[in-house]
Amino acid sequence: MKAQLCVRIGPIEEGVMAYTSVPDPQLEPDKVLIKIKACGVCHSNLHMVEGDFKVFGVPSKLPIIPGHEITGVVEEVGKEVKDVHVGQRVGVQVLYESCRRCEYCLTGNEHLCESKRTTGETVDGGYAEYIAAPYDFIYALPDNIGFEEGAPLFCPGVTAYRAVRRAGVKMGQRVIVIGIGGVGHMSLQFAKLAGAETIAVDRSEGQLRLAEELGADKAILSGDVQEYISKKGKADVVMVHAPSQAAVDQAVELVKRGGVILMAVFGSTKIFFPLEYSVVSSVIGSRHDMNETLKIASMGKVRVRYTSYGLGELDDVFKKLKGGQIVGRAVLVP
């Protein structure tokens, strides 16, 4: 099959990705073979191939096929597979598999499992024509959601759903979302669904226009938000989706006393505590969270903003992503 293979770690401009032919995935008894129809391009994929996640042991092998927000069609099933059939429309999220036995798995928090495997980071992912995945960690894609539209639900969608739950967003609260990218534009919508007043903050006017299209009560450039808050009052919840120290520092300034700062970013950032507030982190989501995200999306309650590219265009997509030129989500189509 054709795939985008990360052959070494380094700046994307130095040719660390190779669009090449690789062996088809091997079908094991408990797995299904999926013909990939779409795979979203996460900013964390770019961080991984450029070496920002080496401290976390990611990627765990080289070469590796990145990509962890996948939709496709089941082409073949292993002999131990249950309740999955050939021709079924399905998706694969970041959580590729967990041990199924530890306290986290047994309490519905599989994404916290210390033995979990992650798609495109510890096992080959979705920048390819096929993937083999455990049958009990794939999800039925609702019939009214297209493959390209649906792919981002399997990372930014479930991540945003989990983050809004972790932040405890309630009706009538003021919620600021810093960074209206792939995850941020979904968090904005889930916070709105929870009944909050939503304020979008970003450095890009294009991202702020997207926020307005999605129903944000206010969309403000990063440099202007402090003036707005000084007039209107600080936020009950500030969600940080921009991977920068400046965004974290801004969150501390914007949250009210006793409020919540939700950290949904990777990397080395420091947070200071001049006053009393809660800091909560959130990462991907459980199988239950994933199914709830799909249910809400199938009801038309949230929308995914995406642009489709061919699988062979990944280098260009990564460069655009690095330069802040992607609005919403980029999706690769084999």
What is the strand content? 25-35%
Shape: globular
- The proportion of residues forming helix, as a percent range, comes to 25-40%
Biggest beta sheet summary: 7 strands, mixed
The CATH architecture of the largest domain: Alpha-Beta Complex
Give the overall average pLDDT: 96
Which residue ranges are poorly predicted, with pLDDT under 50 across at least 5 consecutive positions?
Answer: none
Number of helices: 10
The CA-CA distance between the termini, in Å, is 10 Å
Radius of gyration equals 19 Å
> In the CATH hierarchy, what is the superfamily of the largest domain?
Medium-chain alcohol dehydrogenases, catalytic domain
What class would the helix/strand composition place it in? alpha/beta
Order of helices and strands: EEEHEEEHEEEHHEHEHEHEHEEHEHE
* Domain module tally: 2
What is the secondary structure topology, with strand pairs?
Layout: E1 2-6, E2 17-21, E3 31-41, H1 43-49, E4 70-77, E5 89-92, E6 95-97, H2 103-106, E7 117-118, E8 130-134, E9 139-140, H3 147-150, H4 156-167, E10 174-178, H5 184-193, E11 197-202, H6 205-213, E12 218-221, H7 225-232, E13 235-240, H8 245-254, E14 255-263, E15 278-281, H9 287-298, E16 306-310, H10 314-322, E17 329-333
Parallel strand pairs: 10-11, 10-13, 11-12, 13-14, 14-15, 16-17
Antiparallel strand pairs: 1-2, 3-4, 3-8, 3-17, 4-5, 5-9, 6-7
